[in-house]
Amino acid sequence: MNIPNSERLEAIYGESTKSAARFRALADHFQEKYGHDEAVFFTSPGRTEIIGNHTDHNGGRVIAGSIDLDTIGAAAKNDSNVIHITSEGYRDEIVVDITKLDSIPKVVGTPSLVAGMMEAAKKFGFQTGGFDAYVSTNVIAAAGVSSSASFEMLICTIINHLFNDAAMRVSDYARIGQYSENVFWNKASGMMDQMACAVGGPVLFSFANGSQPEYRPLDFSFQSKGYRLVIVNTGKGHADLSDEYSGIPNEMKEAAKVLGAERLCETSLDKLLENVDKIPNDRAVLRAIHFFEEDRRVGEVADAIAKDDTAKIMRLIQESGTSSWELLQNCYSLQNCKEQKITLVLALTQLFLNQIGDGICRVHGGGFAGVIACLVPIAETENYVNYIAKYVGNNNVYPMNIRAVGAVCV
Q: What is the pTM of this model?
């Protein structure tokens, strides 16, 4: 079985030795499991949110980028109506009959997610069919770099190339992923995670136009400015956090409704301030203030990138993190307020950054549990990794880079 050539791997990963070994192992497992002599190969990265924390679901702007951790898959049609997916490291095979989607229970894990994506694809006018796939990932699970969206975009890329002659757009991928999470996982997510995984590279997104987000690539890298992005997994919380996540968009929309709008992007901070006394939920007001100020910061960061103003970029990202902690309030769960892994690791990281006099840190992604992002001077990266690993373990610290390629057929 042929694997992707070295030139293609170099374009995606910047190297071809380690990535070729991953795809060779993937091909061997796929052939052993499903007996196909040929396969099509796919990759879908995780994502990092640079700025724009919890703004997408209310029509705001986000700057995000794909990362050099990804989900890869080998797949082939099986001439049936049944999808078979084996995910490396998981015992149970995912089996979904696309003719019986109504019979698949919701909110029961990955089978629900796959069923939701197949229902969405059909609803949006695309073809689906049975296929076999073997999947492997090094995207950190349940930790804010969008392992679920990475998987979703991989599956979308598979059905795009196997059944739709590559006619699907990345916005179609994102709509499909969002529909599945909203309807089959009961999670009120936006489209940012999916878009960032699908598009690739650092990108400015605007979600004001609902199901058709606007986006443009940005010419920027932290590494070229002397910083390394380090993602730290602080430790997964023990509670089911779906209600916490969903509470943010729901409370923002609660405030918007009082202002005569469906989403906050359709109104303004001035109008919010004029009507604070009409919104009984104080936290909804605080989260709405975060939205308006965060959307402003995103625009200012995009302008600062164009002007090559690194100091302003760093300052605004730090302000964003502070707003997430104080106004958005997604650094720990109220279900167990004594468990504060994110705030603890932020505090420990800030002690290190204060000592070296450079760098920033902030909550990353959905929040409540999971990861923080740290931008540390390249020369201090190893020192920071060794420092924070004493508290979270070496296997939970991930220096990484932005990758230029999104979810693609390899």
A: 0.84
